[in-house]
Specification:
Largest sheet: 5 strands, mixed
Order of helices and strands: HEEHEEHEHHHHHHHHHEEH
Number of helices: 13
CATH topology of one domain: Conserved hypothetical protein from pyrococcus furiosus pfu- 392566-001, ParB domain
Strand content: 5-15%
Helix content: 40-55%
CATH class of one domain: Alpha Beta
Radius of gyration: 23 Å
Shape: elongated
């Protein structure tokens, strides 16, 4: 499915600039507008906001924001940056299109708009999917259909939320990438994950360097057992990295078994989809 795909009916809820009827646009008091409570985006670049505010001072707000009415005030559906910058620029009113939207539609549109603009970091994106699932009882498949992505992409994004808070902050702040985070998920030890994340930030490790570092990590010796085969350990680590879950490989003279752990039906579907590629 293409990046531009939207959930059924959602495109009609998001007016494109060229087709907005002037009669639809209202000038609304900026003080009567509040942020979207379901807005997945939590971080706003102040420098870029200041630049937008300067542009608005000179040229005004060129594209109306979208809001919904809530009693005597309004909540932003699309255009929070423009609203924030307009407030910074000292504007008293802002052009807006008023739409009658449910909480779910509002959440979907805000998430889709940010995804298409590539404004969300990986943690904000995952939180947006989580909200759709928990607040509106959607399955991963239904979320995938709503935002125009594969279900496996939703599952992989949601797994980032299982990382420790310091690591999630690193991802949200852009200090470590989505690729780094995916590799860290294959590490079983919480202590080791945190230590590796710190090294990524301090030493600027690439994803490939991180993978090599994990592969080279010495394994503790088990009393009474022979040292494990290093080639077998490398194979096991590689399978864990690719599948994103715990894997055990048993090998005895050309035969054995591979055990793959999963923790939900959705996780099983994600692993099966990866194995079909």
């Amino acid at each position: 499915m293409s990046r531009q795909a939207l959930g059924k009916g959602l495109r009609s809820l998001i007016p494109q600039t060229e087709v907005i009827n002037r009669n639809q646009v209202n000038m609304i008091d900026v003080n009567k507008i509040t942020a979207n409570p379901f807005q997945p985006r939590k971080q706003f670049d102040m420098e870029k906001l200041e630049q937008l505010a300067e542009s608005i001072k000179e040229h005004g707000v060129l594209e109306p924001i979208i809001v919904r009415r809530v009693e005597d005030s309004y909540q932003i559906v699309v255009g929070e940056r423009r609203w924030r910058a307009s407030c910074m620029a000292g504007l008293e009113t802002i052009p807006a299109v008023i739409k009658d939207l449910s909480d779910r539609e509002m959440t979907e549109i805000a998430l889709i708009e940010n995804l298409q603009r590539e404004d969300l970091n990986a943690i904000e994106e995952a939180e947006g999917y989580r909200i759709l699932m928990e607040e509106f009882a959607l399955t991963q498949e239904e979320v995938a259909q709503s935002v125009g992505k594969k279900r496996s992409s939703i599952a992989n994004a949601l797994r980032l939320l299982s990382l420790e808070e310091p690591i999630k902050r690193y991802v949200a702040d852009g200090l470590i990438s989505r690729g780094h985070a995916k590799v860290l998920l294959s590490v079983e030890s919480e202590k080791l994950r945190l230590a590796l994340a710190k090294r990524i930030v301090e030493e600027g490790l690439s994803v490939r360097q991180l993978e090599k570092l994990i592969q080279q990590k010495p394994k503790p010796k088990i009393k009474g057992k022979a040292d494990p085969n290093p080639e077998l350990l490398m194979l096991q680590e590689e399978l864990q990295r690719v599948l994103g879950t715990k894997v055990r490989v048993d090998y005895h003279g050309g035969k054995g078994k591979i055990e793959i752990e999963y923790y939900s039906d959705e996780e099983l579907e994600r692993i099966l989809e990866l194995m079909r590629i």
